[in-house]
Design goal:
It contains 4 helices and 2 strands. With about 130 residues, the protein is mostly helical. The longest helix is centred in the C-terminal third of the chain and has 29 residues.
Length: about 130
Protein backbone atom coordinates (compact mmCIF):
# COMPACT_ATOMS: atom_id res chain seq x y z
CA UNK A 1 0.00 0.00 0.00
CA UNK A 2 1.37 3.33 -1.02
CA UNK A 3 0.49 6.37 0.94
CA UNK A 4 0.86 9.77 -0.57
CA UNK A 5 1.73 12.76 1.52
CA UNK A 6 -0.71 15.65 1.42
CA UNK A 7 0.24 18.50 -0.87
CA UNK A 8 2.44 21.07 0.82
CA UNK A 9 1.61 24.64 -0.06
CA UNK A 10 4.50 27.02 -0.45
CA UNK A 11 4.27 30.74 0.32
CA UNK A 12 4.60 31.44 -3.41
CA UNK A 13 1.30 29.60 -4.00
CA UNK A 14 -0.51 32.44 -2.22
CA UNK A 15 1.03 35.13 -4.42
CA UNK A 16 -2.06 35.52 -6.72
CA UNK A 17 -4.27 36.10 -3.67
CA UNK A 18 -1.86 38.68 -2.25
CA UNK A 19 -1.66 40.44 -5.63
CA UNK A 20 -5.46 40.55 -5.95
CA UNK A 21 -5.83 41.88 -2.41
CA UNK A 22 -3.15 44.53 -3.03
CA UNK A 23 -4.81 45.57 -6.31
CA UNK A 24 -8.21 45.90 -4.64
CA UNK A 25 -6.78 47.87 -1.73
CA UNK A 26 -4.75 50.03 -4.13
CA UNK A 27 -7.85 50.78 -6.21
CA UNK A 28 -9.81 51.86 -3.13
CA UNK A 29 -6.99 54.10 -1.86
CA UNK A 30 -6.41 55.54 -5.33
CA UNK A 31 -10.13 56.28 -5.81
CA UNK A 32 -10.43 57.96 -2.42
CA UNK A 33 -7.33 60.13 -2.93
CA UNK A 34 -8.19 61.16 -6.50
CA UNK A 35 -11.81 62.07 -5.71
CA UNK A 36 -10.63 64.10 -2.72
CA UNK A 37 -8.06 65.96 -4.83
CA UNK A 38 -10.13 66.69 -7.94
CA UNK A 39 -13.59 66.93 -6.35
CA UNK A 40 -15.36 70.26 -5.88
CA UNK A 41 -14.62 72.12 -2.66
CA UNK A 42 -17.49 74.58 -2.46
CA UNK A 43 -18.66 75.14 1.10
CA UNK A 44 -21.81 77.02 2.02
CA UNK A 45 -24.25 77.26 4.88
CA UNK A 46 -26.90 75.34 2.93
CA UNK A 47 -24.47 72.59 1.90
CA UNK A 48 -23.25 72.10 5.47
CA UNK A 49 -26.78 71.92 6.90
CA UNK A 50 -28.18 68.58 8.04
CA UNK A 51 -30.81 67.08 5.74
CA UNK A 52 -32.84 63.91 6.00
CA UNK A 53 -34.29 62.74 2.68
CA UNK A 54 -34.59 66.32 1.46
CA UNK A 55 -36.56 67.46 4.52
CA UNK A 56 -35.16 69.95 6.97
CA UNK A 57 -34.33 68.49 10.38
CA UNK A 58 -36.59 69.28 13.34
CA UNK A 59 -35.74 68.69 16.96
CA UNK A 60 -32.79 66.94 18.54
CA UNK A 61 -31.08 64.02 16.84
CA UNK A 62 -30.50 62.35 20.20
CA UNK A 63 -34.11 61.57 21.01
CA UNK A 64 -34.55 58.18 22.68
CA UNK A 65 -35.54 55.31 20.39
CA UNK A 66 -37.66 52.42 21.58
CA UNK A 67 -35.78 49.22 22.41
CA UNK A 68 -38.36 47.36 20.30
CA UNK A 69 -36.72 48.79 17.20
CA UNK A 70 -33.36 47.31 18.12
CA UNK A 71 -34.83 43.96 19.20
CA UNK A 72 -36.60 43.54 15.88
CA UNK A 73 -33.46 44.56 13.98
CA UNK A 74 -31.32 42.05 15.88
CA UNK A 75 -33.89 39.28 15.39
CA UNK A 76 -34.09 40.05 11.69
CA UNK A 77 -30.31 39.75 11.33
CA UNK A 78 -30.25 36.59 13.46
CA UNK A 79 -32.93 34.76 11.48
CA UNK A 80 -31.62 36.11 8.18
CA UNK A 81 -28.15 34.72 8.86
CA UNK A 82 -29.58 31.37 9.89
CA UNK A 83 -31.53 31.13 6.65
CA UNK A 84 -28.25 31.57 4.75
CA UNK A 85 -27.28 28.10 6.01
CA UNK A 86 -30.14 26.63 3.99
CA UNK A 87 -28.46 27.44 0.66
CA UNK A 88 -25.47 25.06 0.93
CA UNK A 89 -27.80 22.37 2.22
CA UNK A 90 -30.17 22.85 -0.72
CA UNK A 91 -27.29 22.72 -3.22
CA UNK A 92 -25.90 19.50 -1.71
CA UNK A 93 -29.26 17.96 -0.83
CA UNK A 94 -28.77 14.69 -2.69
CA UNK A 95 -25.11 14.31 -1.77
CA UNK A 96 -25.85 14.65 1.95
CA UNK A 97 -28.44 11.89 1.89
CA UNK A 98 -30.76 10.99 4.73
CA UNK A 99 -28.17 11.95 7.36
CA UNK A 100 -28.00 15.51 6.01
CA UNK A 101 -31.78 15.64 5.85
CA UNK A 102 -32.08 14.66 9.52
CA UNK A 103 -29.48 17.26 10.54
CA UNK A 104 -31.36 19.93 8.60
CA UNK A 105 -34.63 18.91 10.26
CA UNK A 106 -32.90 19.32 13.62
CA UNK A 107 -31.55 22.73 12.56
CA UNK A 108 -34.97 23.87 11.34
CA UNK A 109 -36.58 22.55 14.52
CA UNK A 110 -34.22 24.60 16.67
CA UNK A 111 -34.74 27.64 14.44
CA UNK A 112 -38.51 27.36 14.66
CA UNK A 113 -38.31 26.77 18.42
CA UNK A 114 -36.45 30.06 18.78
CA UNK A 115 -38.97 31.79 16.53
CA UNK A 116 -41.86 30.35 18.57
CA UNK A 117 -40.19 31.60 21.77
CA UNK A 118 -39.85 35.10 20.29
CA UNK A 119 -43.52 35.13 19.27
CA UNK A 120 -44.68 33.85 22.68
CA UNK A 121 -42.63 36.56 24.46
CA UNK A 122 -44.35 39.19 22.32
CA UNK A 123 -41.13 40.71 21.03
CA UNK A 124 -42.60 41.25 17.57
CA UNK A 125 -45.65 43.16 18.84
CA UNK A 126 -45.18 46.77 17.90
CA UNK A 127 -47.00 49.15 20.24
Amino acid sequence: METTAPAQYLPGDYLPIVIQFAAALGFVVFSMVVTHLIGPKRKSQVKNASWECGIESKGDARTPISIKYFLIAILFVLFDVEVIFLYPWAVNFRALGIDGFIWMLLFMGLLLTGFYYVIRKGVLKWE
